[in-house]
Amino acid sequence: MYYYRILIILLLIMLKRKIENVLEVSKLNTWYGDKKILSDINLSVSRNEIMVIMGHSGSGKSTLLRYILGLEKTKEGLIKLLGSELAKLNKNELYELRKRIGVAFQSGALFSSMTVGENIQLPLHENTNLDENTIQIMSRIKLELMQLSGTESLMPAELSGGMLKRAGLARAVIMDPELLFFDEPSAGLDPITSAHLDNLILQLRDTLNMSIIVVTHELESAFKIADRIIILDKGKIILTGNKDEIKMSNDPRIINMIERRAISNQFNASDYLNRLTRK
Questions:
Q1: pLDDT, tens digit, 9 for 90 and up, residues 93-116
Q2: Can you give the pLDDT at residue 251?
Q3: What distances in angstroms separate CA 158 from CA 105, 107, 112, 240, 274, one per listed residue?
Q4: Would you say 18 and 178 are in contact if contact means Cβ atoms under 8 Å apart?
């Protein structure tokens, strides 16, 4: 009877983890000074889901990530990350929460004075009490996953652009995070390397049961990896849907993005003069 109760409890925990949202954003509004940047942002990301955030430069993608990661404090709206409301966390609680997430930066962001292996192992040295042998084994496992086996002793300057991104990704997942953020994985890479990174993202989701949020401009990549896509424009979400819903949209802003049409700005002489002469 005792073991039966334990089994029921474990099943309930697994079921909760399966249906729980790893991220919830509700009615988020943000400003830089008097300028409103994000307006009435509402979104959610489920466990084991890949969510892609798209939008042209200046649409608010980076600002949204800063608030989701707790780098900026919300003044209006609610953000729940892995079940915790960010606004209610103190410094230590936020620190502990961040151990459960990973961030892969656009450039890889490796420390240039450290070897690849030292870069990958850094989160384990800083956040765990694991012995050195275990840390080295864990880093080799992640490097093997990224097809970077044998690069531990190399310096970041000795890696190609694609290898730098994969090394940064290995560091981001070294602690097996529940939620991974990946900023512009395909930026500056050739099509074959970009496709390889797309496959890695899918592999991480499938093998490590990881939820992933990707910011990208690459339509081909987004349509390949995303379960759902969010389109931002001027700080507002104009559409959330799967790739078929995005492709079928009649919104001219989304059509322009899909068909790579330049946005034409009509010249207003009066507005131009006012901008030049204002004090």
A1: 999 999 999 988 877 788 889 999
A2: 86
A3: 18, 14, 10, 40, 51
A4: no
Q: What is the pLDDT of residues 201-222, one digit of tens each?
A: 898 898 888 999 999 888 888 9
CA separation for the pair 166, 108 (Å, rounded): 8
What pLDDT does 226 receive? 93
Task: Give the pLDDT score at 11.
Answer: 57
For residue 240, the SS3 value is: strand
Say what the pTM is: 0.82
CB atoms near residue 255 (< 10 Å): 12
68, 18 Cβ separation under 8 angstroms: no
What are the strands of the beta sheet with 76-81, ordered from one edge? Answer: 35-46, 21-32, 76-81, 84-85
Identity (one letter) of the amino acid at 35?
K
Nearest Cα to Cα of residue 213 among 42, 60, 51, 65? 51
**How far is 37 from 226, CA to CA, in rounded Å?**
25
Q: How confident is residue 265, by pLDDT bands cut at 50, 70 and 90? A: low
Percent of the chain with pLDDT over 90: 38
Q: How far is CA 165 from the centre of its chain?
A: 14
pLDDT reading at 54 higher than 50? yes
Long-range contacts of 116-119 (CB under 8 A, 24+ apart): 116/143, 116/148, 116/151, 116/152, 116/153, 116/154, 116/155, 116/156, 116/159, 116/167, 117/143, 117/151, 117/152, 117/153, 119/156, 119/167, 119/171
Q: Supply the DSSP string of 10-39, one letter for each residue.
A: HHHHHHHHHH-EEEEEEEEEEEETTEEEEE
Of the candidates 183, 24, 175, 18, the residue with the CA atom closest to the CA atom of residue 101 = 175
Per the CB < 8 A criterion, the answer to whether 54 and 257 are in contact is yes
d(CA 203, CA 179): 14
